[in-house]
Amino acid sequence: MRTVMPIHNEDSRPAMSAGGEAGCILGVSREAALPISCQQWFHLRWGGLRDPHVRSLAWLLDSPDLLNPAAPQWGGRIASLGPDAATLAREWLHALDASPMALHAYLAMRPHARLGRYAEKLLAFYFSWCRTLVAHGVQVRAGKRDTIGEFDFLLRGHGSPTAAEGAIDQDQNGDQAADQTADNTADNTADRDESHFRNPAKGYGIARDNINGSKVGLKVQARDNVWHCEFATKFYLLRGDPDAIRDSADYFVGPNLADTLGAKMEKILDRQLALSRHPAARALLQAEYGIESGEHGMDLAQALVKGWLFYPLDEAPSRRREKLIGVSPDHCRGFWCTLAQLREAEPVKGPGGYLLLPRLEWMPPALAWPENVCDLSALALLVQAEFERDNTPVMVAELAPDETQGGRLVEVRRGFVVPDDWSHRAGLAKPR
């Protein structure tokens, strides 16, 4: 089973694999199949999944990286799940989809309204199955009220694409993997506190006799190597400024204008990945997990970044911009338009319709029954009503029939509809 694979240099970045047991669909790699949208790719690979949480997890494992790990501006500090993460988890994901109670129970332990936390919990569930999770969401404090930062994930391994020895074996139908995951998740309940999810001893390859006290996490074995993985799931819109080159990551702004891709990556690279250098972090890693971390921090700290980028309606992609900014060339992309533009748009012809996407459903392409979608004029009214409550961009999806989905509609395109003055407000926040 594959887990996060740190990238150490430009030449080591693997190509994103396609689907199927051999890492392709009908013998064609993703690169050879391009141009193909992220929606088409997901439906080909995961059209049989029905549970929304399992679909979100499959998207996290199989979607393209948002950033190019080989881009020189990231300095080798961007991680990738590697080409086969989802392929190697295929049987487990389908077994989980058929019987998702363990995943639902884990997510219900501490429900989150924030998309980022929800995505973290999904990945923690996956890393637990891989037996690479040491800890998740570890807060570092210098005092009771002085929080220094938080480790998103502490993962076992050298950054190898394979899980640790003794990982869960899958039988032919994946039932054993699903049962083991359910057992492990049930064990987690007693070992979890408000600050972070501590990896339980049962089934994860961690020695139970290495517990240092009753309130701290399990220490890793001496033969284990542990590295720090920061994780982010982000959604940014490229500012519509035709007079600017827009070759800075700060031209990609968040829907609520609170941050930019450039500011977020600066924070991750300069602050969050340096957390293990702090004396309080070094003391915690040693005391709770037996991890030695010198004044320069952990040997390996990298960021895994997933998400979607959205471009002004009908704007052609710019490979030059993507290279300058360090964006992955096959990243998931959509459009953005104003409410006025939406009202003037041509509606879909034939069967199909539109859907508002709640925040926690922003990751995978949408799947819906025909009675749950609306036409374009109704969509405009729904968006207007949303703006009257909250002047924040709304994500919408266009859906169409798919003969493989038993009457369901599948997403073919998505985008943000923004208030008519959003572009002006976005322009007031000048890139650094």
How would you describe this protein?
The structure is a single chain. The chain has 432 residues and is an alpha+beta fold. 31% of the residues lie in helices and 20% in strands. The strands form 2 sheets. Strands 3, 4, 5, 6, 7, 8, 9, 10, 11, 12 and 13 form an 11-stranded mixed beta sheet that branches. Strands 1-2 form a two-stranded antiparallel ribbon. Helix 3 (52-62) packs antiparallel against helix 5 (90-98), helix 3 packs across helix 7 and helix 6 (101-108) packs parallel to helix 8.
- End-to-end separation in angstroms reads 41 Å
Shape: globular
Number of E-state strands = 13
Name the average pLDDT.
Answer: 78
Strand content: 15-25%
Low-confidence stretches: 5-33, 160-218
The count of domains is 2
If you compute it from the alpha carbons, what radius of gyration comes out, rounded to the nearest whole angstrom?
22 Å
